[in-house]
Amino acid sequence: MKRDEALRLAHSEAERLLAAQAFDKAALAEKSGRVAATKFLTPAEAAFVRRFCERVGLRAAFDGGYAGAERCVALFAPEYYMEAADAVESEENPVAVLRATNSAGAALTHRDYLGALMAAGIRREAIGDIAVHGAEAYIFCLAELTPYLTQNVAQAGRARLTLNEVGRAAVPATDESDGEAVAATVSSLRVDAVAAAGFRLSREEAKAAVERGLCSVNHLPAAKPDAAVAEGDLISVRGKGRIRIAEVRGETRKGRVAVTLLRYR
């Protein structure tokens, strides 16, 4: 599919820019014989780029530095790569990891670390996830920024920071099972029904959240209250947090659907 024809698949200016970036990065990878990557994408942006690439036949892989990362880059590999996913293991993958520690052992928050990075003049699209583990954090960023960040980000609030580049193996495992397990029954696997059970809302409140654009499924806006959801889907409601449908256990004797949800804040 030609570039101009492919860009017509976008429904907004923001989507058109993402589509153009994906198309151009794929062309660059093929021309240069090297992996080409976008900046870090939000979950919604990554979901659009993934769908766009599938529709127009572009080979893309997505990597945020660890399994389950929310913010990630889209990687485009030249034709000689057997699989696009091989780009993740390539030395040309631009995702790097910095470990941030502070001598006082202060328990800083995600906002503290992000604020320190923004104060240093770093654009949000250059930073991926920030995984906080106790008194330290692991910052996923574009590799080209690591020298600048290690030399210029030295404080978050009143805490003095030390940033060092580390390998991915140094990052503690992130286990989504740490979410709060909630057993529930729902009338059907509709997004409003599951959201109501997971966030302790009335059915009308859940329906209103969808209709007001406050509810997302797998990082994309829920289309309508009766949109179908399935095991594994991630549902979020602005201001309420996130839930994942961990298991659909089957139908109860009363004809309802038994589910296990994982709830995160």
Q: How do you describe this structure in short?
A:
The protein is α+β, with helices and mostly antiparallel strands and 265 residues long. The protein has helices spanning 3-7, 13-32, 43-56, 110-119, 146-152, 191-199, 203-211; strands spanning 36-37, 61-63, 73-76, 95-102, 127-133, 136-142, 155-156, 159-166, 180-186, 215-217, 220-221, 234-237, 241-251, 257-264.
Unreliable stretches covering 5 or more consecutive residues:
none
How far apart are the first and last residues' alpha carbons, in Å?
Answer: 42 Å
Could you tell me the CATH topology label of the largest domain: Structural Genomics Hypothetical 15.5 Kd Protein In mrcA-pckA Intergenic Region, Chain A
Structural class of the secondary structure composition?
Answer: alpha+beta
Total strand count, please?
14
Multimer state: single chain
Shape assignment: globular
CATH architecture grouping of the largest domain: Roll
* Widest beta sheet: strand line-up: 9-14-13-12-10-11
Largest sheet: 6 strands, antiparallel
SSE succession = HHEHEEEHEEHEEEHHEEEEE
The total tally of domains equals 3
Strand content: 25-35%
**CATH homologous superfamily identity of the largest domain:** RNA-binding S4 domain
Give the fraction of residues assigned to helices.
25-40%
The CATH first-level class of the largest domain comes to Alpha Beta
Overall pLDDT, averaged?
A: 90
Radius of gyration: 21 Å
Number of alpha- plus pi-helical segments? 7
